Amino acid sequence: MIKQQINYPVTIGDTFTDITELDEKIDKAIAFLKKHGQDNHWLWREKRTEKSIASILFADRESSN
């Protein structure tokens, strides 16, 4: 999972550096949702919780208990 995220990162959302960009970013998000439908990023995030990542990083500790 971690290798997947590093090798094939998924862009979620957008950033802005100045408040004047906000209207443009909102319009862009609305256009994206109209074209692609509801965002399903929760599916992506579901397996990327702290607990899920920790279970991978510390799997050797759990197996030795």
Short description:
The protein contains 5 helices and no strands.
Question: How would you sum up this structure, described in words?
Answer:
This protein is mainly alpha-helical and 65 residues long. The chain has one domain. The chain has five helices and no strands. The longest helix is centred in the middle third of the chain and has 15 residues, at 22-36. The radius of gyration is 17 Å and the shape is elongated. The model has no long low-confidence stretch (mean pLDDT 76).
List keywords for this structure.
65 residues; mainly alpha; 5 helices
Q: Helical residue percent?
A: 55-70%
The general outline is elongated
The whole-number mean of residue pLDDT values reads 76
- The helix-and-strand class reads mainly alpha
**What is the terminal separation in angstroms?**
24 Å
List the helices and strands and how they pair.
Layout: H1 2-7, H2 22-36, H3 41-46, H4 50-57, H5 59-63
